[in-house]
Specification:
By secondary structure, this protein is an all-alpha fold. Helices cover about 85% and strands about 0% of the residues.
């Protein structure tokens, strides 16, 4: 878990730095103040979900696949609910928010899956 925390923190710093560079230069008209908070949101959810999945993987063994699928579905549904709530309160910035939200979802989900696959392969 410690390695995952270090790697996810490094990923978040990279995303924030690259986002800052892009949004204060080329993409300045599309910057909204929610974007850094969105990165922090994905960082925290990714850490919490990964920690839970590690506990499940150690305890459940054969039932892990069904737990993993259920947690993935709930996480995706939670992300969708958060995005919809944001859009309800800020209709003006829907396009930049959804573009960033989708990009962050892809980045953090890819990272989480790749790190978890490393963990599962080490257990074998």
């Amino acid at each position: 878990m410690k390695q995952f925390l270090i790697k996810s923190t490094l990923l978040t710093i990279i995303v924030l730095v690259l986002g800052g560079i892009l949004y204060f230069t080329v993409l300045q008209p599309y910057y909204i103040t929610a974007l850094p908070w969105t990165v922090l949101f994905f960082y925290l959810v990714t850490i919490l979900v990964h920690q839970y999945l590690l506990k499940v993987a150690v305890k459940s063994g054969s039932r892990f696949t069904s737990y993993y699928m259920a947690v993935s579905f709930l996480k995706m549904f939670f992300y969708l609910a958060v995005a919809i709530v944001y859009v309800i309160f800020d209709r003006e910035n829907v396009k930049p928010f959804f573009a960033n939200f989708l990009l962050l979802y892809i980045i953090y989900t890819t990272f989480e899956v790749s790190e978890f696959l490393k963990f599962v392969n080490q257990k074998k």
